[in-house]
Amino acid sequence: MARALTFLCISTYFKGNDFLKALKESGNKVFLITAKKLEHKPWVRDAVDEFFYVEEGEDGTYNMNEIINGLAYIMRERPIDRVVALDDFDVEKAAHIREYFRIPGMGQTTGRYFRDKLAMRTKAAESGILVPGFSALFNDDAINAFIEKYPGPWMIKPRSEASATGIKKMENAAELWETIHELGDKRHAYLVEQYKPGHVYHVDSISYNGRVIFSWNSKYLAPPFDVAHGGGIFRSVTVPFDSSEEHALETLAVDLLKAFGLKHSASHTEVIRCHDDGKYYFLETSSRVGGANLSEMVEASSGINLWKEWAKMETAEAKGDNYKLPAVRKDYSGIIISLARHEWPDLSVFNDPEIVWRMHEPYHVGLVVRAKSREKVIELLDQYADIIQRDYHASAPAPDRPTH
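Structure tokens predicted for ATPase (404 residues):
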């Protein structure tokens, strides 16, 4: 009898329980590398054969030499067949491990397209995909040429942070240069981009054998940057089915993931439709399931659990079996999440039958709703936003670094 395959998963954030469970149910051996400080989180322990804990350095990074040495010792007796990163911050670690031990999967070059905002913009632009004007911060003359070509305002973004952390908006050249000088010796780790006001969308998809086999399109009702920096309420809703919006988003995501060489993975891509010209511009992508509980929202409308299907697809690929996506449902769904004033707010006021998921996180209020009509979803999200704003909402300043 063939031995069970061993998957090494890496998640230095607490997430991915559905993935770990589905991997185990598919007959695999499951190892998990996670941060020591997350040891007591409610991981699905019966789905994980072995935990390996790593200490975070003072600068928030992990010592890859220690991880490689530890794995080399483990692999003397326990071979590892596949390595999967469950969070943005672990993509590079997984690529490094694959390359070092020659394990199949995404290497460091492709991995950069999904982690480094400069690499992803450069590659997208080279592939004929529209991106807002951008520039590296390596060279002063190049920055001045950028300022001349693309009028402000501009955003300065860290090249390798997830979400809206560390992003700053500048209105004029003096302010922009001041911010660049403040970055000092770290400026090479950032880029500058023209700020384009518009509607921001996210496309959540699964790629198998280099082909996008599932793609779900949604629209943020407030851009993530505005939520993070304006202390707003996070909301997103399914894009109308068979609309020009849906077709444009799907085409852009498929072209992009093909250009980036994504073979087998879940991915989360953000796109902006510019108010000025109505065109769709690529913002960023990642080779993982979207954060902020967007997978619950996608599952509510499509019936597809991105974590579980990703795990099943990875297993089929590793075994050389064929993977088939389950039937997809087409309902509309929406999500609303906000920080709350109380540790465990009483949510009994939210009692509509359309509610299919509730968030269980301290100092948060979060709901997912599902309905046959998009209008109903938006009506409920608007209603809930008013109630949350009035009775629950608290805001915290946006962190410079992501918090766990």
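The mean pLDDT is 93.
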